[in-house]
Amino acid sequence: MKEYDIVGEIRRFVLESGFNRRDESGDFWFDEPMLGFASARDPIFRDYKTIIGDFHLTPPEIFEKGSEGTLTEGTVICWILPVALPARETNRVERRWPSLEWARTRTHGEEFNDRLRKHVVGILEKQGYRAVAPLLTSHFRSIHDARVGLASTWSERHAAYAAGLGTFSLSDGLITERGIAHRCGSVVTNLVLKPNTLRRKNPRGNCLHFHDGSCGTCIGRCPTGAIDASGHDKQKCKEYVHGTIPVETTGRYDVHVLGCGLCQTDVPCEGRNPVR
Questions:
Q1: Is residue 276 part of a domain?
Q2: Fewer C-beta neighbours within 10 Å, C or N terminus of the chain?
């Protein structure tokens, strides 16, 4: 399999799968995906053990924990699923809670993302390769680290950065060429593909706040004050998203994972790279 085979199959699945459509309207949960590849031996994954924590697994580690055998050479296949316009438009006008369309995208859209992860693993295995979707293994878990706060054993955003798909924002999201309102996914495989060599050296390069100090819109968009000029308080964010929102909106939503996304909508980086 070549790079264009993987890109074409993931794009086909996203655009043709009925699971990427709302039942009531037939609209997409996600628009056409962005794809990127990183070498499984890229030194940046080892750097993440210092940047994030030594609990963060490298591609060979997560591969070897999730499948039989070792990984000497391979690829981290990464994708970005941009949230379609209907959910973004409805969430722009919200000030305290996510819109119903955004909440549905968070639940049903991520269910589709899991199907995509399984699909990519399946097509690789049919071709005789081994593959692991890190978030679907028992080795993926959240961690509260004394130094960095909330973290996990595998970060889809950091994998996407390694694959050249974007840089980080003041709110800790990943700003891609198509913005910050998206979901990420990845699969680690022993198939060797050509890595993306266009990764930004500045990990905050697409954020206007860090670029020239001209923006801080996400600060005002956060209803709980979890974002300020110094960065993002992940613990305060978690308490609001998983505690306050579900309690305060009981009975108003028909999904179980609501999300928030206010800092990802009605901001200059919502659907584009504002620095570009």
A1: no
A2: C
Q: How many domains does the chain have?
A: 1
* 50 Cβ contact partners less than 8 Å away, ≥ 6 residues apart: none
Question: What is the SS3 assignment for 267?
Answer: coil
Residue 250's pLDDT is what?
Answer: 86
Amino acid 66: pLDDT: 77
pLDDT at residue 145, rounded to an integer: 75
β-pairing, 131-132 with 182-189?
antiparallel
Q: Which of 86, 201, 65 is nearest to 137 (CA)?
A: 65
Handedness of CA 220, 226, 232, 237 (dihedral sign): negative
- Specify the 3-state DSSP secondary structure of 21: strand
Q: Are 141 and 152 in contact (CB under 8 A)?
A: yes
226-240 in b/e burial notation, b at 16+ Cβ within 10 A?
A: bbeeeebbeeebeeb
Predicted pLDDT of residue 171: 97
Please give the residue range of the domain that contains residue 180. 3-264
CA-nearest of 199, 194, 214 to 167 is: 199
From the first residue on, what is the mean pLDDT of each consecutive set of 10 residues in the chain (276 residues)?
94 97 89 97 96 95 85 96 97 97 96 98 96 95 80 96 98 98 98 91 96 97 96 94 92 91 98 96
Q: Is residue 212 part of a domain?
A: yes
Q: Which amino acid is at 211?
A: H
Q: pTM here? A: 0.95
Q: Classify residue 273: in a domain, yes or no.
A: no
Residues recorded for the chain: 276
